[in-house]
């Protein structure tokens, strides 16, 4: 099968350095191909098989993959299921500039040189937030190419820093397998809302042992980790629903509204009400 080769010149509009495209089915995706630009794609619904560099990756809702110019890939159906994703492309110059911006502390060896492209499965909360950010690029830029460039560059840097630097670090860490499993389990709403009791039950470790291990590997306490998950969930609800702040606080696992406000302001630099007002202001200015 012949490999199609795509150039950013033909994919992106004149003067653009990036390209964002929702893909409603893999039947609309390109056959086996490579290109002279970078891209990342996020699966928003369903599942499929991603064939890349002669290997197969199982991809499903929440899977985020970073494709390099050297990668040859295409998609296959998985059990006949429909698969939808958002595809975002960037020129080599943009990615190089973003990596320089992140500086020497950001190790990109695994990102750029691994045989298979970096791939990570996002928790539902983080997947929904990234989808929200991407879907609003066109609304917020209002056809302004310069503003669109800034918005997509910002998202690229966040994706590299928040997801693929963590992936790189996890390759080198000595994180115990039981703790890796625990962190994955704690991403589930029913567990982070239950809190420490769920963590003790799932880990089968004593409170003292958990405190020592969390401090050693994550530089935070179990309570701080749980609160970070709850706050991300609360932020997601504030941005995507009209549920009252007090009900969001309870849904996220906080039984004290004042404590919720204090932690939210400390981590997000705005109060829950202020965040919602910012969202409304942006929505009105773009309509």
Automatic annotation (TrEMBL):
Keywords linked to the UniProt accession: DNA-binding, Transcription, Transcription regulation
Keyword Transcription attributed: yes
UniProt GO MF annotations: DNA-binding transcription factor activity; sequence-specific DNA binding
Cytoplasm found in the keyword field: no
UniProt-listed Pfam families: AraC_binding (PF02311), HTH_18 (PF12833)
Alphabetical list of InterPro entries matching this protein: AraC-bd, Homeodomain-like_sf, HTH-like, HTH_AraC, HTH_AraC-typ_CS, RmlC-like_jellyroll
SUPFAM superfamilies, sorted: Homeodomain-like, Regulatory protein AraC
Domain HTH araC/xylS-type: 180-278
Descriptive protein name: Transcriptional regulator, AraC family
Source organism of the structure: Pseudobacteroides cellulosolvens ATCC 35603 = DSM 2933
């Amino acid at each position: 099968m012949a490999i199609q080769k795509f150039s950013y010149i033909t994919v992106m509009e004149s003067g653009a350095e990036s390209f964002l495209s929702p893909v409603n089915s893999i039947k609309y995706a390109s056959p086996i191909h490579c290109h002279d630009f970078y891209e990342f794609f996020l699966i928003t619904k369903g599942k499929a098989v991603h064939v890349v560099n002669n290997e197969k990756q199982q991809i499903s809702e929440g899977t985020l993959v970073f494709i390099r110019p050297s990668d040859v890939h295409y998609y296959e159906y998985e059990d006949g299921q429909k698969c939808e994703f958002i595809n975002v492309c960037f020129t080599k110059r943009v990615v190089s500039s973003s990596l320089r911006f992140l500086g020497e502390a950001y190790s990109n060896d695994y990102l750029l040189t691994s045989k298979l492209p970096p791939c990570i499965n996002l928790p539902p909360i983080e997947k929904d937030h990234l989808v929200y950010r991407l879907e609003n690029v066109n609304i917020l830029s209002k056809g302004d190419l310069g503003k669109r460039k800034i918005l997509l560059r910002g998202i690229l840097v966040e994706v590299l820093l928040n997801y693929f630097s963590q992936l790189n670090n996890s390759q080198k860490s000595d994180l115990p397998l039981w703790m890796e499993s625990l962190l994955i389990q704690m991403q589930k709403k029913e567990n982070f809302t239950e809190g420490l009791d769920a963590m003790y039950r799932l880990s089968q470790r004593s409170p003292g042992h958990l405190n020592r291990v969390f401090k050693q590997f994550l530089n935070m306490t179990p309570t701080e980790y749980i609160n970070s998950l709850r706050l991300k969930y609360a932020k997601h609800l504030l941005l995507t629903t009209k549920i009252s702040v007090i009900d969001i606080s309870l849904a996220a696992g906080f039984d004290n509204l004042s404590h919720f406000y204090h932690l939210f302001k400390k981590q997000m630099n705005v109060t829950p009400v202020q965040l919602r007002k910012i969202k409304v202001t942006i929505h009105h200015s773009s309509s």
